[in-house]
Please model this.
Amino acid sequence: MKIQRINEEISLSRSVDSGTEEQRAIVQSIIEDVKTQGDEAVRKYTEAFDGIHLEQFAVSQEEINVAYTQIDTEMIAIIQEARDNIRDYHEHQLKASWMTTNENGTILGQKVTALDSVGLYVPGGTAAYPSSVLMNAVPASVAGVERIVMVSPPDKNGMIPPAVLVAANEAGITEIYKMGGAQAIAALAYGTESVKRVDKIVGPGNIFVALAKREVFGDVAIDMIAGPSEITVLADDSANANEVAADLLSQAEHDERAVSILVTTSESLANAVADEVTRQLELLPRKEIAAQSIATYGAIYIAGSMEQAIEVVNQLAPEHLEIMTANPFDLLGKIKHAGAIFLGRFSAEPVGDYFAGTNHVLPTNGTARFSSPLSVEDFQKKSSVIFYSQQAFEKNAKKIAAFARLEGLEAHARAIEERGANK
Amino acid sequence: MKIQRINEEISLSRSVDSGTEEQRAIVQSIIEDVKTQGDEAVRKYTEAFDGIHLEQFAVSQEEINVAYTQIDTEMIAIIQEARDNIRDYHEHQLKASWMTTNENGTILGQKVTALDSVGLYVPGGTAAYPSSVLMNAVPASVAGVERIVMVSPPDKNGMIPPAVLVAANEAGITEIYKMGGAQAIAALAYGTESVKRVDKIVGPGNIFVALAKREVFGDVAIDMIAGPSEITVLADDSANANEVAADLLSQAEHDERAVSILVTTSESLANAVADEVTRQLELLPRKEIAAQSIATYGAIYIAGSMEQAIEVVNQLAPEHLEIMTANPFDLLGKIKHAGAIFLGRFSAEPVGDYFAGTNHVLPTNGTARFSSPLSVEDFQKKSSVIFYSQQAFEKNAKKIAAFARLEGLEAHARAIEERGANK
Model:
């Protein structure tokens, strides 16, 4: 792993994959087909891309029952406990409607409402990610969304992995469809005979899914389009090199484009971590992926002081930040930009990925400068509420009309003057 | 104005103007030029589009002082009172960081931080909109954003309208630059010699500004891209036709594509409003615009019952909803989708546009189904905070490792097993 002293501005930003012209054209024509031909088009693309002909897209209760028999009872209990932790944490994010009142009769407020319906995309392929199902569905459920729909591409036998079905059922998802790719996004956005349209689409996917989400954005809401995952570890000489190395590698195994960075004030830790990464890497089943990620994007930065180290962290605005210093809480107030902050050596990133209750859908690629973890708020929206009594109105009518005229909007001024004692 | 009974699903959705290929190409090349040539490129485009050569883009304190002499003292006081009302309302939206603690030592929380910097685009042209400056800048200031930058195209004399400068100064904006169009958006997104880059860009603009915001989205955050404005009035036979008509026209004068709709249970009101619209329209200075909007998008729907009327309102999900019924608060709980809800005859839309304190930047084109008014939250972001004590860790380590292995992520499991008593 490269070790370097800090001597210039450091940024995480990698170019975002915005697809080729050809990919965009494919996605546009799939969406158009689903819009005009509905299920028939979804069926055609499912046959072409997933290699299976499906008459029925909906997953049956029977299939869910079978899934439960295929997962260890102990594992089901762990999924349930994780779900409960996620629910507990996210319940703190619930916002109430509120209002203010004034003696002159003015009432102003904000009415909070859940979205009516949400669609959750769950990728298929070799790895099944039940944790991702929980992280997306539980906040929607806590927000009060009545209709939570999941779509996921079927395998060649027309099946969805049992762990994903169990997680979906435990998260309170009531509609599950076997469809994937751009055709599934189009079905969620515009509806087909089988699937009623939804108001928002969330969840990760490959480049075709990402492009389709961009394409339907505006007609429905979408969540952020996530980039490859990152971790930054901020450590002093109290940190354990084995643990730091293991954490860096846990990020690197995700993806060749994942980023693992150590920022430390300790040269000896820097050297020890570099050695440990090399040693542990050899023992990993996904070592090709992890090695590629570490070689391309891995870095160890030695800072001259903790202040400089923190400055680097804020420049990076990492998705995951682990603070492994003697007194990690001392530094919390200084961290301005990070998706999730893990404090101390027992708060390893997988604690938050799976179990603690915080959300693992986090802003990547430096966007923690302006974005937040997925939360209950992403599934609620607000309406402003305005009530003026006659008294409040008459006190302010002239001022409001004057402001409208300052902007040249005469009909606005007249709408005021049509009313009340001024009339 | 067309009067019709409701007999099918009604939707506000109009196609969103996503620009021509040519417009997109122009915007891309302007952005590229500003990225590579900085101020020089901005200077070139300012000369080409705004007809003025500027050596210096920054507005000086002297120019602001002069602006104050050009605006009526009474008008300045109205702007200040509106700003105070907006600040009071938005202070209720401020979120605090929070945490939960558990006896086993677990601490989970959410750290709320303001964005470092925000850029506000203010359109030029004939109409100056100081209210829009307040509505965008005050929430950013309440959120705690340290650097609020405004850009606005100069007129042929290199000036920005005095009312806009006064509003900017009153809202606490400290940096103002004379630049507009795609070149200003690029300068905010990537920085030039004169302008340091910002983290988020907000504010309305023409199609070039909207396309430029879409283009830089991802590198910086942007607010929603607003469509033409809409009003829906929900009224029973207690409503006053003159007032309803005046309110519909106040929307229609904005834009030929503005939408003004009355939904009512009263046939006599429907007829009276149609007549009043015709009468009042003739008296408006912007009657060409308003007449065009009413002819194309105006509609009066007669509902068979208040329940049906409310259903229509929720289908429309209007930007502005006025409830002009005998007991408007009776209906508030039934409204699911609206940007802002104005209750009763003294809560005319201009009350909220200018003065009451709620935000006038609202979701348009049916997006109130999933979007919210501009708020303090748009200028803050959150970081998850996770602390596990050794006790909490050891209690859960095996479960976390098992979950990671269920997903095939061995390095995640090992990061857990590197630690604690399991080691």
